[in-house]
Design brief:
Largest sheet of chain A: none
CATH superfamily of one domain in chain A: Glu-tRNAGln amidotransferase C subunit, N-terminal domain
Number of strands of chain A: 2
Strand content of chain B: 15-25%
Order of helices and strands of chain A: HHEHE
Number of helices of chain A: 3
Strand content of chain A: 5-15%
Number of strands of chain B: 17
Oligomer: heterodimer
Radius of gyration of chain A: 22 Å
Structural class of chain A: mainly alpha
CATH topology of one domain in chain A: Histone, subunit A
Radius of gyration of chain B: 29 Å
Number of helices of chain B: 15
Distance between the termini of chain B: 72 Å
Helix content of chain B: 40-55%
CATH architecture of one domain in chain A: Orthogonal Bundle
Shape of chain A: flat
Shape of chain B: elongated
Chain lengths: 94, 476
């Protein structure tokens, strides 16, 4: 059962400030999401092997070969603020 | 009250792969900000990570070299936390199925040897770098380091002092260098340690509350941070206070540790299996192949140096603590066949030079070949040990072949008895008082006469012959 305390905790971890209205709204939303996800618990898994993945695939590897990196201008182009070289944020450090 | 110190370490080592753990961007250190980046390592939505096969191989090498069991089935997990150096807002790490577990290494402090248990070794990606922007007062983010592969080596709480902790990290550093999985450059942050430390009354079985001091990147910082934290916790406990479980930082400039007050400290990482990356299954052959490819490790080299070559244990320990130094020792010994001389030069002058210049051993300006040439010049009687010191210092500056230095500076030892006798006759004739003193039993006069002759020959006289000739004269 999702409570408003859960929502406040998750918001805290994500560094989000939620208003009282938002907390109420997201608590309801999250209840619906979790209850939807819970339908999978109805499947009988008594004889299934335990697995974290749906596919029986493993060892998908890449060779250790350098590929050209991305153009920096393009990488930075989605950022709200840059100095032309780096992503720029409000002060995080003293 | 008397306390026992309990220390466990988490050591992070950057793996020396060419590319990042989940994309083909270069791992090269330095580089202009955000030029070794792509949508995968900057966490763009929809980018698909693919695991670098070398990362698995290197982690398994590290596990085998530290006596770990290697997992036949392993997987990666998301560790969720929000911080701007982590572009996806999660780190990809390993939670319940690490690649390696249940290992150990041997450490020695003074004459005591002990085993430090290794709980686990797992793979994960490094974070980006935050840089203070002096211009705006803001923070700049450089993701060149984001996605560089790391192994995290977690120890058991088996260490009881700063010395043991440092010995353990030195041992790990040596092993990782030997097996070639990390360059372990501490000043570049490619090897760093988190220290978990608690105190408990001597005799108590129960652990006290521990603190974690993060991101120590030199042996000196590890030792100082530990001493500081021991003193801090002792003071609190002696006053009847409570040590809080907290994350701490160490400021190497002020020599003080302090508690961090970050919100993300709430240890709620909500780990779950990484759905973008498939599990890892390792076959017996794969593991056996890596085992067969491991080079001789420091412990075994050390034993060989002590038992077969006859080096003192302490010297063998120092030399094998660095792969470069140990390779240097072997290469030089191979050429000049005088292991003791090579060891002596390493233990005295080479260590001194590296300290004076503040360089790593692999930055020494001369080769093992040139050191062995120098030793052969002494062994063949071409130069004296005193001259050899001068030649060494010259070689440490220029890296030049000592045979050339000796020739150019005219430093070849004079071993011709006739030529030395001429000098001896001259000095003895000029110092009748010293001769009389010696005959009156003042042995110091001999040293003076030898010194005068040496000075006359600009240090190039063969000391054995010189001594012999003076004594012959004085005792007749």
């Amino acid at each position: 059962m999702i409570t408003r305390e859960d929502i406040k905790h998750i918001a805290d971890l994500s560094m989000l400030n939620l208003s009282e209205d938002e907390i109420v709204k997201y608590t309801e939303n999250m209840k619906e999401i979790v209850s939807f996800a819970n339908t999978i618990n109805e499947v009988d898994t008594k004889n299934a092997t335990e697995s974290a993945f749906a596919l029986d695939t493993y060892n998908v590897f890449r060779k250790d070969e350098v590929k050209e990196s991305f153009n920096r201008e393009i990488l930075l182009s989605n950022a709200p603020s840059t100095n032309g070289e780096a992503f720029s944020l409000p002060g995080m450090m003293n | 009250m008397e306390y026992e110190v309990v220390i466990g370490l988490e050591v992070h080592a950057e793996l020396s792969t060419k590319t990042k753990i989940y994309c083909g961007c270069s791992t090269e250190f330095g580089g202009d900000p955000n030029t070794h980046c792509c949508p995968v390592c900057t966490g763009m939505p929809g980018a698909l990570p693919v695991l670098n096969e070398k990362v698995v191989e290197y982690a398994v090498r590290a596990g085998l070299a530290t006596n770990c069991e290697i997992a036949r089935e392993s997987k990666q997990d998301r560790k969720n936390y929000y911080y701007p150096d982590t572009p996806r807002a999660y780190q990809i790490s390993q939670y319940d199925l690490p690649l390696c577990a249940h290992g150990h290494v041997e450490i020695a402090v003074g004459n005591t040897e002990k085993e430090v248990g290794i709980t686990r070794i797992h793979i994960e990606d490094d974070a980006g770098k935050l840089v203070h922007d002096g211009y705006t007062g803001g923070t700049l983010v450089d993701f060149n380091r984001a996605g560089v592969p790391l192994i995290e080596i977690v120890s058991e709480p088996d260490m009881r002092s700063a010395e043991e902790a440092v010995a353990y990290v030195e041992k790990l550093k040596g092993i990782l260098e030997y097996i070639g999985v990390s360059d372990c450059k501490m000043q570049e942050g490619s090897l760093r340690a988190d220290v978990n430390l608690s105190l408990r009354p001597v005799g108590s079985e129960k652990f006290g509350t521990r603190t974690e001091t993060k991101n120590l990147n030199s042996f000196r910082a590890i030792a100082r941070a530990i001493e500081f934290e021991i003193a801090r916790q002792k003071e609190i406990l002696d006053a009847g206070g409570i040590v809080y479980q907290e994350t701490r930082r160490w400021d190497d400039e002020t020599g003080e540790g302090y508690a961090t007050r970050n919100k993300e400290e709430a240890h709620d990482y909500r780990y779950f299996p990484e759905p973008d990356l498939m599990p890892i299954r390792l076959s017996e052959e794969y593991i056996q192949d890596i085992k067969n490819s491991l080079p001789e490790l420091p412990e075994s080299r050390k034993n060989r140096y002590v038992n077969e070559i006859g080096l003192p244990e302490y010297d063998a320990d120092i030399i094998t603590s660095s792969k470069y130094l140990s390779d240097f020792f072997e290469a030089a010994t191979d050429i000049c066949k005088n292991a003791k001389a090579v060891s002596n030069w390493i233990m005295t002058d080479i260590i001194r030079i590296a300290k004076e210049k503040g360089i790593e051993y692999n930055e020494l300006p001369f080769s093992a070949e040139n050191l062995s040439r120098l030793i052969m010049l002494i062994d063949k009687g071409i130069i004296s040990s005193a001259i050899a010191k001068k030649v060494f210092n010259e070689m440490a500056e220029s890296g030049e072949n000592p045979e050339i230095i000796v020739k150019e500076k005219g430093l070849i030892q004079i071993s011709d008895e006739g030529a030395i006798k001429e000098v001896v006759d001259k000095i003895i004739a000029a110092n009748p008082q010293s001769v009389a003193d010696y005959k009156a039993g003042k042995d110091r006069a001999l040293g003076f006469l030898v010194g005068q002759c040496m000075k006359e020959m600009k240090g190039k006289g063969n000391p054995q012959i010189l001594n012999k000739l003076i004594l012959e004269y004085l005792n007749n």
